[in-house]
Design brief:
Layout: H1 8-45, E1 52-56, E2 63-68, E3 78-81, H2 83-89, E4 94-95, H3 101-105
Parallel strand pairs: 2-4
Antiparallel strand pairs: 1-2, 1-3
Length: 110
Amino acid sequence: MTDLPPDLPRLRTLETWLELSLAEVRQAIAWAERREQEQQRGREERPPPADWLLESGIGDGPAVYVHVGGCHMAGKRCRGVPRDVALRALAEVEACPHCRPDAELGYLEG
């Protein structure tokens, strides 16, 4: 049949242990559900990616590239900027040769 003990005291002990174990599992489930809800809320409330990025040099140096938002070549030292700032920056900073923000912005040198 089963491997349960035949006497009542051991059955009661087993019952208590199972109730405690079930309480721990339920607590872990509740914690995991809260974590999942927080992650989902974070994904929903995340601001949209910037349309234009300005990449600065090493150690807060001057800007080195202007990128289209989402450019795969944009480095870690990028910050989102509005369109007018990206346009002005192109007069002094190189346009990324991969994403070509100058073409996207309609920027003509000179």
